[in-house]
């Protein structure tokens, strides 16, 4: 084990502990815990949003996906998470901020209950689905910690992820949203610095930008002659192309459209742990410049990790590094794509930078994990129990329920992460498929379409959840018509949810004109 790297990680944990202590002191009420009472400043909000999407998926998953798909998955890097947080602020944040002040809203379920005049049923449906999707998203975060800790420090996968679990549960239970936002400020800064420094060094180690691009096109030959694997192994023939044929999964243009053009940007835009962030900042002026700043910072973060993943694929094909392998069912052995970043970092980065990689991954993971835990706990304690089942429960009672939910969700999701998948990204994409098909129409339709009503909102969430779950159960990740088309398994759920929302909106009565006016519903951003 590397003593200095462990020391850097310990220093990081101490810094998080200090920040969490002050966050806990600031947390006095339920509103403080759930939404920081709407008091987050400009930079805290911007970096909270960036930290909420640039998770272990970005540091580990994006590099792993690029190791496998190369430039063919470029679309996610540009129109995925950066688009989601920017347009969430523009399309959702601006309207919700004004409604939050007017109705004292703490969660997106507060908005749904008011907009659809449905104080109980829609809260329960949305709260349970939201908690379930947060749970699925969490599994991948612990996976990322385990991967990097084992690759760099030699700490066993399960032990490293368990340590991270204990730390994040501790500060979320005590400090809620204030601790989450303030720690995300530090974590996002650390993550941005390490990634921006690492990418140029790794590109230089590969011989420079021009050399790397030339080598990408040679991967099919390199991996066949040096590695002894077929030239088509892991989409090698498409690594230097913008996308593959329509019938090829993951890299095909149709697959890119349904996964990186629909699922990722729209799913993240309405994801509860992202949407709830827009109820936490203190000045509506933040919606003017924060979206641009988020995009400008987020795109290079994700592009940098993509390039690192591509560099790892080239270096692997050249025989310059070995990626740990994983044996799947049937005895098929594939490269463990998610090891791409830590493996090439260990070879290419100077020791001082490498020492900071584990704290960087910890920062990426915790900046998302803590937000997911706060959201999941609030869904159950505040939305379902306090507002739908037992309104008379005290804040003290809610506080204890929050702690129990955080503990249960955190431990159970960590336990499921002990059996990692060959590519972490699939966990995230599946969770985003559920978020998209359950929340897109109730939120976006609710804000901008007057015909959208409670029947449409309720049933498109239920139908979207059921259809998406069945789709993944029946087809797995890919729906393929051989020789014709390959699309991501989000499609049936998206079609079912959309049709349900539209049909029920037209055959049932809209909400009262009074409510539509009070909730600023309509195809506009600013009501004159």
Automatic annotation (TrEMBL):
InterPro entries: Na/Glc_symporter_sf (IPR038377), Na/solute_symporter (IPR001734), Na/solute_symporter_CS (IPR018212), Sodium:Solute_Symporter (IPR050277)
Subcellular location, principal: membrane
PROSITE patterns: NA_SOLUT_SYMP_1, NA_SOLUT_SYMP_3
GO molecular function: symporter activity
Domain of life: Archaea
Keywords assigned: Cell membrane, Ion transport, Membrane, Sodium, Sodium transport, Symport, Transmembrane, Transmembrane helix, Transport
Gene3D superfamilies: Sodium/glucose cotransporter
TM region positions: 6-24, 45-67, 79-97, 121-140, 152-173, 185-212, 253-271, 292-316, 348-366, 400-417, 423-444, 456-475, 481-507
GO terms (BP aspect): carboxylic acid transport; sodium ion transport
Pfam family of the protein (one): SSF
Mode of membrane association: Multi-pass membrane protein
Cell location: Cell membrane
Gene Ontology CC annotation, any one: plasma membrane
Family, as annotated: Belongs to the sodium:solute symporter (SSF) (TC 2.A.21) family.
Protein name listed in UniProt: Proline permease
